[in-house]
Design goal:
Elements lengths: L4 H30 L7 E2 L2 E2 H31 L9
Antiparallel strand pairs: 1-2
Helix pairs in contact: 1-2
């Protein structure tokens, strides 16, 4: 099966946003925890490294998932491959 230019554009946009979100995930998961000792400032009354480990990273993960779902729904509509809901 040959991919059309529309399919190629769709997958390029999909891969681009997935790559960007994976970079953000990597920074939140590994870079922040690796540099936790250097991040010694107070954030909402707690040390920033503790806050990121306990709450911040989970909030960011949920936001990443919500953004990806919203972006992909819009991309599906743009390229006319959205799922049709049956009543």
């Amino acid at each position: 099966m040959q991919l059309t230019d529309s399919h190629k554009q769709y997958w390029q946009k999909n891969i681009r946003v997935t790559g960007l979100l994976l970079v953000i995930w990597f920074v939140v998961t590994y870079v922040v925890s690796y540099m936790a000792r250097d991040l010694s400032f107070t954030f909402f009354g707690w040390p920033f490294s503790f806050w990121m480990g306990a709450q911040g990273s989970l909030v960011i993960y949920v936001l990443l998932i919500a953004y990806y779902a919203h972006y992909m729904n819009n991309l599906d509509k743009e390229y006319d491959c959205a799922e049709v809901e049956e009543d």
